[in-house]
Design brief:
The protein is an alpha+beta fold. It is built from eleven helices and 14 strands. The protein is globular and about 75 Å long. It folds into three domains: 85 residues, Sulfite Reductase Hemoprotein, domain 2 (Alpha-Beta Complex), CATH 3.90.480; 142 residues, Sulfite Reductase Hemoprotein, domain 1 (2-Layer Sandwich); 55 residues, Alpha-Beta Plaits (2-Layer Sandwich), CATH 3.30.70.20. The relative contact order is 0.09. A hairpin with a 5-residue loop joins β3 and β4. GO terms for molecular function: 4 iron, 4 sulfur cluster binding; heme binding; metal ion binding; sulfite reductase (ferredoxin) activity; sulfite reductase activity.
């Protein structure tokens, strides 16, 4: 392999190294996972002209072209200049220029989302529209962040395994004069949600404490006695991640917040990252950054200047549960401390 190739620089340029020396894979960003079909021809031409004739739909909804030779990277970057302008600048309003150098960074990962309420009957919010609004707040930036948006608490976007998982929720309105007392909403809540509804004298009573805002009752009702309000609300899941050493599922950070709150919170992410990393961006999961700072410090910075809506709830404390793998398991059993041999419980990331 040519040792003069700067792999780190190419990675920032959204090219991933291949096992084949001198070959790379382009990752074209698709914020929110939805673009006009005409752009499929862009990845097709790249794959057929400079790649190996295939393209891969990336795990973060990017359009990837493997098999690109190092000597063709400049030509590919020049070719995608118009695509970057169309998507990042014109569509997402990102504060950047489009030129023949290609993507300026890969720090903030492509925001993923399910199709949302532009198609899905269960979705409470328009996911890809929100993804495009948030894209301009995090890209371009060298500070690492992974974000996913789901239209309902089914969380098809796997927000529970991202730095930020944003989930559309709703507070359905019950119009009792329309209710025919069939009990279908009660049954669907028992089967699919949190069993907060019951039928009393042919009318519905609701225990609001445990409603997760899924909106299943709205879909189940044949008389439209349950309706979604016009106001869109969100739940924000924090600190989830996959990984070899410390995988964990995220926990609820915010609940019943408006889109304005979500956008304002994400605007503060770069400030928080710079604070923890002393203005020196490195590749590190958002969850690890939060662990370094402590949850209370994170909350202080990330909510700075954010005006919470009246319904909003904020977690006062988060206790994450994670799997902790240790390299010396052949020396000491996992039930013993690796140095003292005393009974040992792996430490969770608390605040």
């Amino acid at each position: 392999m040519n040792h003069d190739i700067n792999i780190t620089k190419l990675k920032l340029n959204c090219f991933r190294q291949s096992k084949v020396p001198g070959e790379f894979m382009l990752q074209m960003r698709v914020p929110g996972g939805l673009i006009d079909a005409k752009y499929i021809s862009v990845i097709q031409e790249i794959a057929e002209k400079w790649g190996n004739g295939t393209f891969h739909i990336g795990m973060r909804q990017t359009l990837n072209a493997p098999g690109i030779k190092y000597e063709n990277i400049d030509a590919v970057n020049s070719f995608i200049q118009q695509y970057i302008k169309d998507i990042e600048i014109d569509l997402c309003n990102a504060d950047m220029e489009s030129n023949s150098a290609g993507y300026p960074t890969i720090g903030a990962r492509n925001i993923t989302s399910c199709i949302g309420n532009s198609h899905c009957i269960k979705a409470n919010v328009n996911t890809w529209e929100l993804a495009r609004k948030l894209e301009k707040e995090i890209f371009p930036s060298h500070y690492h962040i992974k974000m996913s948006i789901s239209g309902c608490p089914n969380d098809c976007g796997k927000g529970h395994f991202n730095d930020f998982g944003i989930i559309g929720v709703t507070k359905p309105i019950y119009l009792k004069d329309r209710c025919i007392g069939c009990g279908r909403c009660v049954k669907v809540c028992e089967h699919s949600a949190t069993r907060v509804l019951k039928l009393v004298n042919n009318r519905i009573e609701k225990d609001t404490c445990c409603c997760v805002g899924c909106g299943e009752c709205v879909e189940a009702c044949p008389a439209s006695a349950w309706v979604r309000p016009e106001q869109k609300l969100y739940r924000v899941i924090l600190g989830g991640r996959t990984g070899k050493q410390y995988p964990r599922m995220g926990k609820m950070f915010l609940n019943w917040v408006t889109e304005d709150v979500v956008v304002a919170v994400i605007k503060n992410w770069q400030t928080f990252s710079a604070n923890v990393l002393h203005h020196k961006p490195i590749y590190i999961h958002g969850g690890h950054l939060i662990d370094r700072a402590g949850y209370q410090k994170f909350k202080e910075i990330i909510l700075d200047g954010v005006k919470l809506n009246p319904e909003a709830q904020v977690a006062q404390r988060i206790l994450w549960a994670e799997t902790e793998y240790r390299a010396n398991i052949n020396v000491k059993p996992l039930s013993q401390h690796p140095s003292s041999g005393e009974p040992y419980t792996p430490k969770s990331s608390n605040e």
